[in-house]
Design a protein that fits this description.
about 450 residues, about 70% helix, about 0% strand, globular
Length: about 450
């Protein structure tokens, strides 16, 4: 791709998105700049505290268990209370619990507070995704989710390197730094983000539902949605693979004699590549067949991690990260757009909560899987398992997407229902909306 094509792709990727989206994007970026606990928890417990890989896996699994609980609760809160109140509650409580975790000494206390951190830190995810779906036009959602994922990894690329250096001297500073930046996120939400939850039209008590009116959505509705739950199940398999980047990989590298700084540099490659490639790759895939994209990304994820079994020096670990990073770049916006497409407008919080449950359950299972396999059989067995999971997920995506009509497999539905936020504003200094966008062929 030429320099002119890259500039055009960058311009088209940021044009025409609403002001509220960019404040939400900024909040995401600031939050990820402070990411420390999820990335360095395993190293903190094994290298600094001297616990076994199994105990580290247990604690990180409790962190994931907290996410399992909060995903469903936060999804309901997002629909009932609103996106903004849910975000404020999640971010302020996350800041407090992360700071508290840094001062815990007893193993039981560390485990308990890690559970609390998992509950609070995952509670914002359904609200963020639902708000983004509310304020962005359907045809712009793939690139909006891609830009949000880009912000996540821009912050991660910086924080992983910086936190690796900080961990050499003081893990406590990392905990406190994450708490401070999470509070900044809460301030941004409070000051800059309006509520975006679509309002149902008033209907007299006892009156029949109008033609075309969306029925009431409960958690049972979501769980009975077979097509959507198929996506959730496949997302769980993919999540099991990607979670090993922050669970199995640091433990395996630590066992092989590498330092936290080495791991920080290796995992920073993941964020750096996403920062460099997310925009041009999204421009390339935006209008392409989601079935093929999801199948290919699943295979790249599984076999990219499987290649870790053959890594020796630091550069070889970094090379394997390059392979599965490409899978992330393709999978994340494609799958998120599909999830929003399958979600009713007034049930977006609940649907996002159940979808995030797949990642939360994976965050619970993946550390246990990594700890047991590494302790009992060695890291190579873990990397072999990721290859198997990637193959199964690819087959699942192929079968699931075969059952969807061409309209369902498109990048956006024809209409997404009413929203309460404007969609034609841009922040000061951003490029003017493009009038000559050419869809990728």
């Amino acid at each position: 791709m030429s320099a002119a094509s890259l500039r055009r792709a960058a311009r088209e990727s940021v044009s025409g998105l609403p002001r509220a989206f960019w404040w939400l994007w900024t909040s995401t970026l600031v939050n990820r700049l402070g990411a420390f606990v999820a990335t360095f928890m395993a190293l903190y417990l094994t290298l600094d505290r001297g616990y076994s890989a199994s105990f580290a896996g247990l604690v990180v699994a409790l962190h994931g268990l907290g996410g399992v609980v909060s995903s469903l609760v936060a999804g309901v809160m997002t629909d009932r209370l609103g996106r903004r109140p849910t975000l404020l509650a999640a971010q302020t409580s996350t800041a407090f619990s992360v700071a508290l975790l840094g001062f815990m000494e007893h193993p039981a206390a560390i485990a308990a507070v890690a559970l609390l951190v998992g509950m609070t830190s995952n509670a914002s995810r359904p609200a963020v995704a639902a708000m983004m779906a509310d304020i962005v036009r359907p045809e712009d959602r793939v690139r909006a989710f891609a830009l949000n994922y880009w912000a996540i990894n821009l912050g991660f690329a910086v924080s992983a390197t910086a936190a690796g250096l900080v961990a050499q001297y003081s893990y406590l500073a990392g905990f406190l730094g994450e708490a401070a930046l999470t509070l900044v996120c809460a301030v941004l939400v409070f000051v800059k983000l309006p509520e975006s939850r679509p309002e149902r039209p008033a209907r007299p008590v006892g009156a029949p539902a109008a033609a075309g009116e969306e029925p009431a959505i409960g958690l049972g509705t979501v769980l009975r949605d077979g097509r959507f739950m198929g996506v959730v199940g496949l997302s769980f398999l993919i999540s099991l693979i990607f979670t090993q980047g922050s669970v199995g990989l640091p433990v395996a590298m630590g066992s092989a004699g590498f330092s936290p700084r080495d791991y920080g540099l290796v995992i920073a490659v993941n964020g750096l590549l996403i920062v460099l490639l997310q925009i041009p790759v999204t421009a390339f895939i935006e209008r392409r067949d989601p079935q093929k994209l999801l199948v290919v990304s699943a295979l790249l994820a599984g076999y990219g991690f499987a290649l870790t079994a053959f890594a020796g020096p630091v550069w070889a670990y970094a090379l394997t990260v390059c392979v599965w990073t490409l899978a992330e770049i393709v999978n994340s916006p494609t799958q998120m757009s599909l999830v929003v497409q399958l979600s009713p407008v007034h049930g977006r919080g609940r649907y996002q909560g159940v979808y995030n449950l797949s990642w939360a359950v994976a965050a619970l299972v993946a550390p246990l899987m990594a700890g047991v396999l590494i302790d009992r059989f060695g890291a190579d067995w873990l990397w072999g398992a990721t290859g198997v999971l990637g193959t199964v997920a690819a087959a699942g995506y192929w079968l699931l997407m075969r059952g969807l009509s061409e309209g369902d497999r498109g990048t956006a539905p024809a209409a997404a229902g009413p929203t309460t936020a404007p969609t034609d504003e841009a922040p000061p200094g951003s490029p003017a909306p493009a009038t000559d966008r050419v869809p990728a062929s």
